[in-house]
Amino acid sequence: MSDSGDYDGSIVTVLHQVRLTADLQGLAIVDLTQDAADAPVAYCLGDAGADTIERGRALLVAIPDRPTDLVGADNRPLIACPWTLPPARPGGLLLWRAAGSPAWTDAERALCAALAMLLRTVIGAGMGQIGIDRLTGIPNRRWFLDETDRHIDRLDRDATVGTLTLIDIDDLRRVNHAAGRPEGDRMLVRMADQLRAMVRPGDLVARVGADEFAVWQSGMDHLTAAERADSLCRNQAFQDGPDGRGVKFSIGIASRLPGSGEDVRAVLRRAHMAAREVKANGGGGWRVGRVEPLLRRSGP
Question: Do 173 and 83 reside in the same domain of the chain?
Answer without folding.
Answer: no
